[in-house]
Amino acid sequence: MSEVMDLPGDDEEYASGVVKKFMFVNRKAPHGSIYALEVLEMVLISAAFDQDVHLAFIDDGMYQIVKGQDPTGINQKNFSKTFRALDGYDIEKLYVEREGMEERGLTEDDFLVDVEVISQAEMAELMNGMDVVLSA
Q1: Is the pLDDT at 42 greater than 80, yes or no?
Q2: What is the largest CA-CA distance in the chain?
Q3: Which residue of 51, 79, 112, 135 could cross-link 46, Cys pair, CB 3.0 to 4.6 Å?
Q4: Is the pTM of this model over 0.70?
Q5: Residue 30 to residues 27, 37, 62, 70: CA-CA distances in angstroms?
Q6: Fold classification of 19-135 (topology level)
């Protein structure tokens, strides 16, 4: 016989289908750790539950969406093309921090997905408006 476990939170809120605004902040380079791929998986799971998903790419996290990645030399899988599938999950709110992009010599044309480039101050304001902010 299986048991049903009560999940934390407001059952009525969950049952009513309340949509939360999630911000996933990508700070880490795409290879050399599991962070980037794990965040991408969390993003897809959140979208599957019809949440309002936003992605921010700051610091070295913006390298996750740079065109032309080839990590075969370090025996890593290139998952960057998965970001192109986000549109199919209705995930269209992708942001890159302008100052970090300029520090790294990147332009919008370097990214394999469409992003909105915003300042650090705008990014902070956007994060303040989220119900949940997860950073890796």
Answers
A1: yes
A2: 59
A3: 51
A4: yes
A5: 9, 8, 8, 11
A6: Hypothetical Protein Ychn; Chain: A, (3.40.1260)
